[in-house]
Amino acid sequence: MGVKFRAEKEDLIKLISPAAAGASNKTTLPALEGILFTLSGDELTLCGYDLERGIHVTGEVIGETDGAVILNASKINSIIKALPDGEVSFICDDKNSVTVKCGMSEYVMHGSNADMFPNLPDFSGDYSFDIKGGVIKRIVSGTYFAISQIDKRAVLQGQCFLINGGDISAIALDNFRIAMWSEKNAVTSEKENMEFIVPGKSLLEFSRLISDNDEDIHCELTMKHIIFSVNNVVFFSRLTEGPYLAFERQIREESKINVKVSREALIESVERVSLFVDEKNKTPIQCTFTGNMLNIFCFNQFGRVNDSVIVEKSGPDLEIWFNYKYILEALRACTEDEVVLELNSEMHAMQIRNDKNAEKSFFHLILPMKIKRD
User: Angle CA(120)–CA(157)–CA(222) in degrees, nearest 5?
Assistant: First the structure.
């Protein structure tokens, strides 16, 4: 079916770039590597969809002939960006051959029949809630790093959302740590309590589309999908099925040892010690809490390194070992100048948190490494 319209280059880029992010780059099905262009009057709709997540974008153009065609997402995105500034002419004939012109540049692409594009899910959900874009961004930066990169269980590759009235919490975990971000009065919901799991890669992709932290985002939930709507963009993703792991049992309300420390000072100390870590053998770093001092030590075939940080500690002294990367990733995800470390023994996990009653609170749990003693 023929398609014909005109639009400014910059306007087309704003439509094609997000839609291209929804297309697949690892498939043998050409339609999934493409963007579906659909013109109706002066409204142009673009959609990229890889069967797990998709992006649906609409915009105004100067329409001449209604129709639809599929074009390779990577190619059309690169072509439009490479064109000179000005008005772009887009003409698709009945054989799905597309001519794109701007200034003295002309490209001819072979498209595919629109009927080959997969059916899209229903964008009308069973439940809905509204949230600010800034909350989504903070959730991603505060928890995404803890999503499992090795475990094949789908729930460990996703982020679990808990909505209770206007409060929201997001949790990510693997076999060695937990990351949680919570905000109070951050959600307007028509249902009091909701729990669902969003694939981590989908949420990360959506967060990249949000340009304004104050943008209002409308979310719809169906049995199998979540649909985010912001301005002229609709982002949808399949939800992960199955119950999330019972992480609550791992969280301690009280600890024998409580340590308040400068987040930046601790990051810098761990970074210095990490220079001697043997990545191949996963050398642990030793953390010794004595009085009001935290000493961090590493010893291996390269040599040894000691570094210390002043802290405020209550409780007995303790010697414990960790994977330095887990500590750094957790600390970098925290947002306050000071953090509280909560410990019990060398065999129990360390908890990192701020005030759990704060409007925006973070929580990280890191399992220690077991060391064979001589």
Answer: 35
Question: Is residue 28 predicted with pLDDT exceeding 80?
Answer: no
CA torsion 190-169-120-217 (nearest 10°) is: 60
Rounded to 5°, angle at Cα 100 from 32 and 73? 20
| All residues at 6 or more sequence positions from 249 whose CB lies less than 8 Å from its CB, including other chains | none
DSSP code per residue over 342-356: EE--TTS-EEEES-T
Confirm if 350 and 323 have CB atoms less than 8 A apart.
Answer: no
Both structure tokens of 83: 């064109």
pTM of the entire predicted model: 0.90
25 three-class SS: coil
Element (H, E) at 300: strand 293-300
Report pLDDT digits (tens) over 156-184: 899 999 999 899 999 999 989 999 999 99
DSSP SS3 for 137: helix
Nearest Cα residue to 69 out of 5, 121, 22: 5
**Could you tell me how many helices (H) and strands (E) the chain has, helices first?**
6, 27
pLDDT in tens, 295-334: 999 988 888 999 999 999 999 999 999 999 999 999 999 9
228 vs 136, 207, 225, 232, CA distance in Å? 11, 11, 10, 11
